[in-house]
Amino acid sequence: MKAMILAAGRGERMRPLTDLTPKPLLEAGGKPLIIWHIEKLARAGFTELIINHAHLGEKLEAALGDGSRFGVSICYSPEIEALETAGGITNAMPLLGPEPFLVVNGDIFCDYDFTDLPRELGEFSAWLVLVDNPDHHPDGDFALRQGKVLDDGEHKLTFSGIGIYRTELFSAIARGTKARLAPLLREQMAAGRVGGEHYHGLWLDIGTPQRLHALDGLLRNSGREAHSE
């Protein structure tokens, strides 16, 4: 199964850190955020990676290269202007191919074991990993009931930014156009075609300089700096 890391966001909330550095290359624990992802994916057997980019994308390609030093193969899907999640995935479809694929948001940090993901989707068109609601997103996104993800429910969880998708989910989107993922997922949820799980471990949305600083302190205090991986 191929994996895509979403890395095209401008990182407005991260400014001025992202004025000269693409957000995925910001460091925590002595290592760029995106490299934590790449190494975790490689250990789980995901060796064919696609990374989209827009803002300062050339710096991302220069830093990561073809991925060989991480034991993976990296292809890039450039965007002149960030196309949002579904638009970015659709734009990368020629690289992703016809089989279901994994997508990971580039601006999260988690201890999720990617080997736990289902490799077959069965009746589902998407599989989402949900997490406990962080303080900055207390209302959550979706509910989870008996292995199915629902748009409505009494106890909503937060979408982690980790999901597996079938290519057909994006068939109505024209390449090169902006499109959000949530409306596509909600349509499939209404048909009972989105499965998922609740992950209870470490997960952080690294959306602000304060959260990046907190993650850096967490990694260093736990002895998980770059030299420890």
From TrEMBL:
<feature type="domain" description="Nucleotidyl transferase">
    <location>
        <begin position="2"/>
        <end position="121"/>
    </location>
</feature>
<dbReference type="GO" id="GO:0016779">
    <property type="term" value="F:nucleotidyltransferase activity"/>
</dbReference>
<dbReference type="Pfam" id="PF00483">
    <property type="entry name" value="NTP_transferase"/>
</dbReference>
<protein>
    <submittedName>
        <fullName>Nucleotidyl transferase</fullName>
    </submittedName>
</protein>
<dbReference type="InterPro" id="IPR005835">
    <property type="entry name" value="NTP_transferase_dom"/>
</dbReference>
<dbReference type="InterPro" id="IPR054790">
    <property type="entry name" value="MurU"/>
</dbReference>
<dbReference type="InterPro" id="IPR029044">
    <property type="entry name" value="Nucleotide-diphossugar_trans"/>
</dbReference>
<keyword id="KW-0808">Transferase</keyword>
<keyword id="KW-0548">Nucleotidyltransferase</keyword>
<dbReference type="InterPro" id="IPR050065">
    <property type="entry name" value="GlmU-like"/>
</dbReference>
